[in-house]
Amino acid sequence: MIGLAIAGGAYVSTADEAKFCGWLFKSTELVNPLFALLDAEFAHRLAVSAAAHGFVPREKRPDPSVLGLEVWGRKFANPIGLAAGFDKNAEAVEGLLGLGFGFVEVGSVTPQPQEGNPKPRIFRLQEHGAVINRCGFNSEGIVVVAKRLGAQHGKRKMEETSSSMSPSTSDVKQGGKAGPGILGVNLGKNKTSEDAAADYVQGVHSLSQYADYLVINISSPNTPGLRKLQGRQQLKDLVKKVQAARDEMQWAEDGPPPLLVKIAPDLSKQDLEDIAAVALTLRLDGLIISNTTISRPPPADTHPLAQEAGGLSGKPLFDLSNHVLREMYMLTRGKVPLIGCGGVSSGEDAYKKIRSGATLVQLYTALAYGGPALIPRIKAELAECLERDGFKSVQAAVGADCR
């Protein structure tokens, strides 16, 4: 509220919308430290609620043109996205896209509601910019999420109908099914389910109509047996069933949503070769690299909470996930779009992901520490990195360190 008051004062002194928007984002830096005083999971819930009710700044400034790109026939205003895990139940899609992300991924969503693992289950390693979580796919379930996404989809269609009746200066359709940005839906399986494929198929049938892309999450370390699905034959069988479920549905001229798989960073060279082979053989639309790690890379290994069970995210994950990203880019010869995720907290970090083979980049933990002000800063820094090294677009820089 202090931040909003300051931003309001800025608005009084200037009629420039861009300046006001900049002040509004900057003001959140005053509020964000207060979240560190709260229990980690309570702070998370408060942040989601704030975004859901519009108590977060809304980006009005256009992104630098160098950041725009097209992937899967979809136009992204910028390559910076919010990873799954923040908005697990699709409560705040509009507010989060409004922060200026190029795309937002909700979930993981399980078929049946489940509480997840016992609390406490989220631990801050603040001095390392890291978090350990063992949430275990806490989800309100497909029915609730489908209802929310359906309502948002209906609102979007009404707005499109209204705007189509007004003169337009562009024939290019911007944004995705959720509005001014791209929406990904991350699918999970229930902890007690004995048929993982059936869980993912149910997610496809219920949620794919609202998604600009779908993700099969087989990499959370907090659901027993889930990572075994990354094995070559298990993955091949699973992807075939999910692809078939998606393709048997009726689709408009835009076609079905792309299907991606999210993998772990804790994989051997052979594991990566197996996943790459499946991705190429089945023409998978993309891979997200990576989820959290069960290892404790330095300096997080010396933290008093390092022995807590669960997946580690944040800055200590960056090098490990980037290594896996680079390996996968070379194994797939750049034929499979990759989303780099893990330890991104600056524009330079995002740029390194792109040079290592990522077409798009996701963050999560850095947002928890840096708040909304982080988003425009990362985009501006990324644009500077691209221009500094002579790249005219994000696409031109993809895989530059692997050539």
Automatic annotation (TrEMBL):
One of its GO terms (biological process) is 'de novo' pyrimidine nucleobase biosynthetic process. It is found in: Mitochondrion inner membrane. Pathway: Pyrimidine metabolism; UMP biosynthesis via de novo pathway; orotate from (S)-dihydroorotate (quinone route): step 1/1. Residues 161-170 have a biased composition (Low complexity). Its cofactor is FMN. Residues 67-386 form the Dihydroorotate dehydrogenase catalytic domain. It catalyses: (S)-dihydroorotate + a quinone = orotate + a quinol. Residues 154-181 are annotated as: Disordered. One of its GO terms (molecular function) is dihydroorotate dehydrogenase (quinone) activity. InterPro entries: Aldolase_TIM, DHO_dehydrogenase, Dihydroorotate_DH_2, Dihydroorotate_DH_cat, Dihydroorotate_DH_CS. One of its GO terms (cellular component) is mitochondrial inner membrane. The keyword Membrane applies. Its EC number is 1.3.5.2. Keywords: Flavoprotein, FMN, Membrane, Mitochondrion, Mitochondrion inner membrane, Oxidoreductase, Transit peptide, Transmembrane, Transmembrane helix. Binds 1 FMN per subunit. It is a single-pass membrane protein. It is an enzyme of class 1 (oxidoreductase). Belongs to the dihydroorotate dehydrogenase family. Type 2 subfamily. NCBIfam families: PRK05286.1-2 (NF003645), PRK05286.2-5 (NF003652), pyrD_sub2 (TIGR01036). This is Dihydroorotate dehydrogenase (quinone), mitochondrial. It comes from Brachypodium distachyon (Purple false brome). The gene is LOC100837635.
